[in-house]
């Protein structure tokens, strides 16, 4: 099962980028994952399978990752 990844997630990869940075911002989702280096600003595209192998940790998650709880849902019968 694929790792849930969202645009604006900040991730740490296992290998260092040549500029010295480990952290990347996700800018595109699909079969390929688009990443932007937070140190130098370089954009890369890597296949999702390679991304999942290289992923070490999520530094911060996108607000989209937070699923709304059932108490946040508006109950139409209470109106």
List the helices and strands and how they pair.
Layout: E1 10-13, E2 23-28, E3 32-37, E4 43-47, H1 48-54, E5 55-60
Antiparallel strand pairs: 1-2, 1-5, 2-3, 3-4
Fill in the keyword field for this structure.
single chain; 79 residues; mainly beta; SH3 type barrels; five-stranded antiparallel β-sheet; 9% helix
What would you note in describing this structure?
9% of the residues lie in helices and 34% in strands. It is mostly beta strands. It has one domain (1-62): SH3 type barrels (Roll), CATH 2.30.30. The longest helix has 7 residues, at 48-54.
End-to-end distance: 40 Å
What proportion of the residues form beta strands (DSSP E)? 25-35%
Radius of gyration: 16 Å
Low-confidence stretches: none
Main sheet: strand order: 4-3-2-1-5
* CATH architectural group: Roll
* Overall mean confidence score, pLDDT: 85
**What fraction, in percent, of the residue positions are helical?**
under 10%
The run of helices and strands is: EEEEHE
Q: Any idea of the CATH topology?
A: SH3 type barrels
Short description:
This protein is mostly beta strands. 9% of the residues lie in helices and 34% in strands. A 5-stranded antiparallel β-sheet has the order 4-3-2-1-5.
């Amino acid at each position: 099962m694929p790792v849930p990844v969202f645009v604006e997630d900040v991730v740490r990869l296992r290998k260092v980028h040549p500029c010295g940075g480990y952290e990347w911002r996700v800018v595109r989702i699909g079969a390929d994952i688009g990443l932007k280096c937070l140190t130098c600003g370089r954009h890369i595209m890597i296949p999702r399978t390679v991304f999942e192998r290289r992923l070490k940790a999520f530094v911060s998650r996108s607000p989209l990752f937070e699923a709304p709880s059932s108490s946040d849902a508006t109950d139409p019968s209470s109106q």
